[in-house]
Q: What sequence folds into this?
């Protein structure tokens, strides 16, 4: 097994936390002290003793002690100063190595966050929804083009219209039934559960129920318009790092949703603006002032959601309204509605 290289910070920390023992400075200090004491001892052994006197002997003894131990004390003061300097230098190197490691980690995280492989789950889901929407629109456009081509052929022009065939409205390009009834008018409305599930968007790539509800919603004209408008504003908000999954708004009671759908405004329905995240509110308000595209997309989304809510409230139960308030689209409505003053 190949030994992994030890980083500089790890090596310094190991050196600082282990038993320091005797360093080079301490060894030198001990050597100098021994040399000095040996030299002083030899000096006093060789020096002949002179006449003794009480006062002079006391002074001489004091000076002798000072002469012997003062250099030793000075040596160890220098040793302690050198040791303190070494410890401070090693601590500084360890801190510098730690700062360098943190800087390297920060740069690697930024590089990883900026790469294409680090795309957020919400962005991937929105891209999948956009692709599904484009496929649906392409299929509708192809079907419309084929009908126009068939209608333009001489055979089709010359053939008499049958009594049971539905005429085509030139403006809406939708087949009309007898008495001018459009297909959308006899199509049953989208189920409430499917509407709620579609407005929350699929959670993962394997959320088959979510994608099935989204496909059914895209077949309904009003639901399709709201889903597309919601997709636009969610994508724009994600550019500022604002994701609906991160918001935890205060839940509005079902009667508040009903009163808003019935046209009431003011303090009565102020509870609908339950988003309290100051950073999200500040970023959204700044974007509304500076970005014209974002402002237009926001007003379009608020208008579509309001139109949907008016029709949805008539057939929805209190549980349906509570579930609607938990969707990502409804959270975006609460955030944008509070920023634009919709609930005032």
A:
């Amino acid at each position: 097994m190949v030994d992994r290289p030890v980083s500089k910070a790890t090596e310094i920390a190991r050196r600082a936390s282990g038993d320091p023992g005797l360093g080079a400075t301490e060894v030198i200090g001990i050597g100098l002290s021994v040399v000095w004491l040996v030299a002083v001892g030899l000096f006093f052994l060789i020096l002949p003793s002179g006449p003794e006197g009480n006062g002079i002997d006391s002074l001489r003894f004091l000076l002798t002690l000072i002469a012997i131990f003062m250099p030793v004390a000075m040596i160890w003061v220098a040793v302690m100063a050198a040791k303190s300097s070494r410890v401070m230098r090693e601590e500084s190197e360890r801190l510098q190595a730690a700062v360098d490691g943190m800087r390297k980690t920060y740069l690697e995280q930024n590089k990883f966050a900026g790469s294409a492989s680090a795309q957020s789950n919400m962005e991937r889901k929105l891209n999948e929804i956009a692709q599904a929407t484009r496929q649906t629109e392409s299929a509708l456009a192809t079907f419309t083009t084929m009908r126009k081509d068939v209608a333009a052929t001489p055979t089709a022009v010359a053939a008499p219209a049958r009594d049971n065939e539905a005429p085509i409205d030139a403006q809406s390009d939708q087949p009309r039934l007898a008495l001018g009834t459009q297909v959308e008018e006899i199509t049953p409305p989208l189920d409430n559960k499917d509407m709620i599930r579609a407005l929350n968007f699929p959670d993962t790539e394997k959320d088959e129920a979510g994608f099935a509800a989204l496909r059914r919603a895209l077949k309904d004209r009003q639901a399709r318009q709201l889903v597309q408008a919601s997709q636009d504003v969610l994508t724009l908000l994600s550019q500022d790092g604002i994701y609906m999954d991160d918001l935890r708004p205060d839940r509005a009671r079902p009667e508040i949703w009903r009163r808003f759908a019935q046209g009431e405004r003011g303090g009565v329905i102020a509870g609908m603006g339950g988003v309290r995240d100051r950073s999200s509110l500040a970023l959204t308000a700044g974007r509304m002032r500076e970005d014209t595209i974002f402002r237009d997309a926001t007003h379009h989304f608020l208008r579509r959601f309001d139109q949907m809510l008016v029709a949805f409230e008539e057939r929805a139960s209190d549980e349906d309204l509570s579930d609607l308030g938990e969707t990502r689209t409804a959270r975006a409505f609460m955030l944008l509605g509070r920023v634009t003053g919709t609930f005032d």
